[in-house]
């Protein structure tokens, strides 16, 4: 019930045509007031819950990244998260114990990874396709490297393009797939376009999050691509192009490309 609409409470009275004495009316007033107060408290709680649902909640597990300084700091979503103290910067050679979104992974993120993320955290590698040969993946180690399945970017530079996700999109995707949907919303809420990522990928993200392991996520991806009439093209690059490859991109104030090998159909 919306705040201020309490007509239903008054309507709960029965036999209102029967005359009552002062004590009865006083008792009714007390009960009525108590019910109104309870409703107001419930409405306040509901409003708060709705706000949390829209904006999400901050992750209580570690979020980190290796920043190779390949991207324009003004367009880098990872740098923006760093300015908001929502991500930690890792040094080359520093080992990360949690799940890392990396092209050297041998399996894709799945709901099975939920405990790993909650216990040890989630990290991403921020680097450029143009400098992929210079990227020292061997110095960014984790016992749990993972790939991301098929997803479409919603960031301003690569909107609608498969696999070409920014760091925050990659992190949010991993969170969503592993059951941390409110955390995904929270991180995306820091970007004006962030909500579009979940909207654009709602169907496939729900499919992935309903799976169990990497194999079932891969099967869900393949079924989705087939049903959508899309086929993986082996001629496409294994990683997305650099976010600085076009002069026209300078008009955007935030973007970077997270390197995540796409999972091939089998």
Structure write-up:
With about 270 residues, the protein is α/β, with parallel strands linked by helices. It is about 40% helix and about 5% strand. It is built from nine helices and five strands. The protein has helices spanning about 5-10, 20-55, 75-85, 115-120, 165-175, 180-190, 195-200, 200-210, 215-225, and strands spanning about 65, 90, 100, 120-125, 145. Strands 2-1-4-3-5 form a five-stranded parallel sheet. It is globular. Mean pLDDT is about 75; it is low at about 5-20, about 20-35, about 45-50 and about 235-255. It comes from Papilio xuthus.
Features:
9 helices; five-stranded parallel β-sheet; alpha/beta; 266 residues; 5 strands; single chain; globular
| Helix-strand sequence | HHEHEEHEEHHHHH
The biggest beta sheet reads: 5 strands, parallel
| Mean pLDDT figure | 74
Distance between the termini: 52 Å
Outline:
38% of the residues lie in helices and 7% in strands.
Give the arrangement of secondary structure elements.
Elements: H1 7-10, H2 22-55, E1 63-67, H3 77-83, E2 88-90, E3 99-101, H4 114-120, E4 122-126, E5 144-146, H5 167-177, H6 181-188, H7 194-200, H8 202-209, H9 214-227
Parallel strand pairs: 1-2, 1-4, 3-4, 3-5
């Amino acid at each position: 019930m919306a705040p201020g609409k309490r007509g239903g409470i008054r309507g709960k009275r029965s036999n209102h045509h029967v005359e009552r004495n002062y004590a009865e009316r006083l008792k009714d007033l007390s009960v009525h007031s108590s019910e109104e107060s309870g409703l107001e408290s419930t409405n306040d709680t509901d409003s708060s819950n709705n706000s949390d649902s829209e904006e999400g909640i901050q992750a209580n597990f570690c979020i980190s990244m290796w920043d190779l300084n390949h991207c324009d700091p003004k367009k880098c979503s990872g740098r923006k998260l760093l300015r908001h103290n929502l991500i930690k910067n890792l040094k080359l050679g520093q080992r990360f114990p949690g799940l890392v979104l990396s092209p050297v992974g041998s399996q894709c993120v799945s709901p099975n990874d939920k405990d790993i993320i909650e216990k040890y955290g989630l990290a991403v590698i921020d680097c450029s396709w143009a400098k992929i040969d210079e990227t020292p993946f061997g110095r960014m180690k984790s016992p749990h490297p993972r790939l991301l399945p098929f997803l479409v970017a919603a960031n301003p530079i690569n909107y609608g393009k498969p696999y070409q996700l920014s760091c925050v999109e990659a992190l949010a995707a991993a969170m969503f797939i592993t059951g941390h949907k409110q955390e995904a919303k929270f991180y995306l809420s820091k970007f004006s376009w962030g909500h579009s990522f979940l909207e654009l990928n709602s169907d496939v993200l729900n499919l992935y999050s309903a799976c169990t392991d990497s194999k079932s996520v891969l099967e869900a991806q393949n079924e989705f691509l087939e049903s959508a009439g899309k086929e993986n093209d082996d001629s496409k690059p294994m990683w997305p192009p650099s976010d600085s490859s076009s002069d026209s991109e300078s008009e955007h104030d935030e973007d970077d490309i997270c390197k995540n090998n796409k999972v091939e159909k089998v």
